[in-house]
Write a structure and sequence with these properties.
Helices cover 38% and strands 36% of the residues. With 177 residues, the chain is an alpha+beta fold. The protein has a single domain, classed as Cyclic phosphodiesterase (Cyclic Phosphodiesterase, Chain: A, Alpha-Beta Complex), CATH 3.90.1140.10. A four-stranded antiparallel sheet has the order 2-1-7-8. It is globular. 29% of the residues are buried.
């Protein structure tokens, strides 16, 4: 089975993020994110394969139990390589440390690959892909024409998601104190 670990956010920040996903994908013919019907989230550990998730659950549970919720600010847009357009998120120092501790703890599982994106974490919430440079440039121009909005939310969960056919479903969520 395929899994990934994320922070799922809700409230006005999630509504705004989902609104952008619903607008941008169809408007620019880039529907991969729109069609995935994902929860608004910030990935903490990128997708991995596992027959059993028990060890991962125990690690996530221990990390979540140890930490208090902390602030995350969503504000503005960013991109990776003129391909991925995203909603910027800035985690508090505590939030960044939680992700680092999670990766350090998961690294103890010899079968679980911890890749470069897991270690060089750049927290974000994807809005759309631009599969051509022209499409990306149009998406980027549109996003930057919007009035900047800021949202403060709490990093209050670490959630394991599981791939079910073509969609990701919440497998188990662990609350931070």
């Amino acid at each position: 089975m395929k899994y990934y670990i994320a922070f799922i956010f809700n409230g006005s920040a999630a509504r705004y993020h989902q609104k952008l996903v619903r607008e941008v994908g169809p408007q620019f013919g880039e529907n991969k994110i729109f069609d995935s019907k994902n929860h608004s989230h910030v990935t903490l550990k990128y997708p991995f394969e596992a027959d059993s998730i028990t060890e991962v659950e125990e690690i996530v549970k221990k990390v979540a139990k140890k930490h208090k919720k902390s602030k995350v600010i969503f504000n503005g847009f960013g991109n990776f390589r003129r391909f991925v357009a995203y909603f910027k998120s800035k985690f508090s120092a505590e939030g960044v440390n939680i992700q680092k501790e999670l990766m350090k703890s998961l690294r103890k599982l010899k079968w679980l690959k911890i890749g470069g994106r897991d270690l060089n974490w750049e927290p974000h919430s994807t809005i759309s892909y631009g599969f051509t440079k022209k499409n990306f440039d149009n998406i980027w121009k549109y996003l930057n024409s919007l009035t900047n909005k800021e949202f403060v939310v709490y990093f209050d969960n670490i959630t394991i998601l599981k791939k079910s056919r073509k969609y990701w479903k919440i497998y188990r969520a662990f609350k931070l104190k």
